[in-house]
Every structure is written in C-alpha cells, then in structure tokens.
Amino acid sequence: MKTVYLSMSTDLIHGGHINMIEKAAELGELTVGVLTDKVVASYKRFPLLTYEERAKIIANIRGVAKVIPQDTLSYKKNLETLKPDYLVHGDNWKEGFQKAIRAEAIEVLASYGGILKEFPYSDDEQYQRLEDASRDQLSIPDIRRSRLKKLLGMKTTVTAIETHSGLTGIIAEKTQVLEEGKAYQFDAMWVSSLCDSTAKGKPDIELVDMTSRLQTIEDIMEVTTKPIIFDGDTGGMIEHFVYNIKTLERIGVSACIIEDKTGLKKNSLFGNEVVQTQDSIEHFSEKIRAGKKALKTSDFMLIARIESLILERGMEDALTRAFAFIEAGADGIMIHSRKKDPSEIFEFCEKFREKDKKTPLVVVPTSFNSVTEEEFAERNINIVIYANQLTRSAFPAMQKIAETILKNHRAKEADEMCMPFKDIIRLIPEE
Fold first, then answer.
1. Alpha-carbon distance 196 to 174, whole Å?
2. N or C: which end of the chain has fewer CB within 10 A?
3. Angstrom distance (rounded) from CA 404 to CA 380
4. pLDDT: is 1 or 270 the higher one?
5. Averaged over 379-386, what is the pLDDT?
6. Are 258 and 229 in contact (CB under 8 A)?
7. Cα atoms found within 13 Å of the Cα of residue 84, Cβ hemisphere only
8. SS3 at position 176
9. In the structure, what pLDDT confidence band is assigned to residue 65 with cuts at 50, 70 and 90?
10. CA angle 349, 350, 353 (to 5 degrees)
C-alpha cells in the first residue's frame, strides 16, 4: 500500500481541511504531521488548542492512519524519516515564504522518488470568517493574559517590542520576517512608560497617570491579540499599586514589571548622573507580597526589576535582591545595565542560574544591543524586550520629513520617504 504525508497546523477544522484529508487518504495510508505549538506560534496566530489537543482531533478524523509531530516549518526531517510515496499539499504554497519550503520538499522527494500532489486551496469566505473568529478569541482578556506563561513554556526565548499606540501595536502584531524557510515575529508587546510619556510629549517621571496609560493599553488591545507586558515603573505607593495591578489583570495584561527604586522616577539609563534612590529589600518585598495577594489568577506575572547594576551597587547586592524578591513572590527577575559590554549581565545570569534554574529572567538590551537572542538563550534568559526602538526610530524620520517640507516649500521631495497612502489603508483594515 502506498504511503502519504500531509502537514496541518489548524485548531479549527473546517470543510476545506476535511476535503484535503479525504483526497490524501484516497492515495494511500495517511500520516498527518501536526505542527507543534512552538512552530505555529512562530509564523501564525497563537494556537487556541495545544498540540496534544489538535493531534487528538486530527487522529480521530476518518482516513487518518497516524499522527506525528512536525517541529519545523520545513518538511525535510519528516520526509527523510518516513519517505512517503506522496506528499499532499494545497497549491497555496507556490508563492510567499512557503515557496522556499515547497522547493526544499520537492528536492527531498526527488532524492528517493516521492511525488508531490497539490490540490486547489479552498479560499471560501466562510472558512476565512471562521479563521477570523478564532483570531478574535485571542483578544479576549482571559485568553490574552494567559499567553505569556504559555509562550515561556513553548519557547527558549520570548521577544517583545515596545508599543505606545494602536498603530505601533499593529506593527508589533503583523511584522514578520521570513528567512531560510523559517518565520520570525515578536511574541509580545511592551507598554513602556518612557515611550508612552514621549508619545504624549511628557517627561518620563511618572507624570502620565494610570488612567491615561490604561487608555493606551485599550487602544493597543483593540487592534491586537498578542500578550502585553506593562512597565509599572516603581509601582508607586503600595496601596495604589495593589489597586492598579488588579486593574491590569482584569483587562487582560499578562505581566507587570516594577523597579526597586523610590521617589521621583528618573530613567535608569542616566545611572548615577541623576539622583536615584533604591528601595530597601524589605519594603520592595512587601510591595511584591501585596501585589501577589491582590491577584485573582495564576496567569498574571509580577516581575521585579533590579537596579543594582545601573546604580553601581555591585553584583552581590543584585543577587541578594533577586533571591529575596523571588522569596516574596516575584514571578520573574529583570536585570538591567547601562553598559554596552554585556559581561555584567551575563555574570549575573550565570550566578543566578547556579541557584535558581526555573524563574524567568528578563533583559532589555538597549545599551548592550550587539547581543543576539541566541546568545541570551545560551545563558537561559527567557524574555528579551526591545523597549524603545519604535519610538526612537519614528522621531528622526518625522523630523526629517518636516525639515524637507520646510526646505522645499512643498511635499513632493518628502513623498519618497513616506509610506504610500494605499499601504496605510491596507495596514489598517476597516474591520
């Protein structure tokens, strides 16, 4: 009997999938490779169902003989292992990033005499509406809130980029890079006090109140589905922090990071150039305990940001604080540095991991920006936040446009530096 291989990722089975399975099963004994959660999350929307749940559903569809995991977008590994007589796929992978994956699959098939069978891809509007409805499910607060912890269980390193508006949220949501048959996208969004304040023309001194910042979150949530990590600055007074963290949890934010400083907030990257007062271990631990006690779910993460290296208090102080804050209930530790050399960050992480193998570590590589995500992963760093790059890139671009118009007394010369109007319309759909 001939053997057949078909790959699927969906957690929403519709008529188009059933038709494809039926056609594949007619060719022989059908094995379905179900994409793992990590792979699906890397190029598509976050799966509503786990790999185990999706595999069970597909295994119970008539015509499916066997289900196995496919842990890459590439078919090469499973094709070389199974050597099926037929590979079945829709004809929608002839263009776009899947084109390279298709070419690789054809090459592997040719190496042993396998055949590619392509069938017309169903673009039924009904199926698209179902897919859109599934995507909308991801924006529901309870589902969105839980995604960060789930991602940490799926991926070695979770990446986040700053957002300060609905537009930057769309950019964070939709930007995707395709490279060598692999897809890359940001996993989460960082709502920074610096970028939120800057977008409003205000200094980064906690001047923008919580009500205003919650409106920013609402603007972002309305047009996105990805989890949000909130920059909580110092957290303020414990009584205020408890109230605010309950609000963040309720609306669907996944995590809040608070820093162990007191008094008027000053941006950490100034270091000792400005007066900055570090909170006592005892008081900050009390704030963490109060915050954790106020939470209603286990999904929400409270992460402690340690400023010891920024303020040149030394490695031992940073480590002492980290372990104390974890004991107080912190779900993660963010370690910060203003040095371009990442050595002190790496030293902290290595010494921290000697004692604690599990607690998530977070870094913000604004200064030490030459370090790759792979290098962070090698040191068991779990979350990498690109905290201000969209804001910093927008300002010089807008300023240059303004100067160009003033210089030429018209807008023609500026047009080549602007996004075409039609592309803006496509970026922001009506529905």
1. 21
2. C
3. 46
4. 1
5. 97
6. no
7. 28
8. strand
9. very high
10. 80
Question: In the structure, how many helices (H) and strands (E) does the chain have?
Answer: 18, 17
The helix (run of H) or strand (run of E) holding residue 35 is strand 29-35
- Coil, strand, or helix at residue 237? coil
Q: Give the alpha-carbon dihedral of 175, 181, 187, 193, to 10 degrees.
A: -50
3-class SS of residue 96: coil
Q: Which of 44, 48, 49 is nearest to 184 (CA)?
A: 44
Residue 27 CB partners (closer than 8 Å, separation 6+): 2, 4, 85, 86, 88, 117
3-class DSSP assignment, residue 365: coil
Residues 6+ apart with CB under 8 A from 180: 100
Place of tokens 């776009």: 96
Q: What token pair was written down for 83?
A: 């050597």
> What is the C-alpha separation between 275 and 44, in angstroms, rounded?
46
Q: Which helix (H) or strand (E) holds 373?
A: helix 373-378
186: Cα within 13 Å, side-chain hemisphere = 25
Structural domains of the chain ordered from first start:
3-129 (3.40.50.620), 140-387 (3.20.20.60), 393-427 (no CATH)
Task: Please state, in angstroms and rounded to a whole number, the distance separating the CA atoms of residues 175 and 346.
Answer: 29
Residues known to be catalytic: 204
423 and 429 Cβ atoms separated by less than 8 Å: no
pLDDT digits (tens, 9 = 90+) for 341-361: 999 999 999 999 999 999 999
Structure tokens at 342: 């990442």
* pLDDT digit string, tens, across residues 106-116: 999 999 999 99
- Residue where the block lists tokens 């100067």: 403
Q: Are 337 and 309 in contact (CB under 8 A)?
A: yes
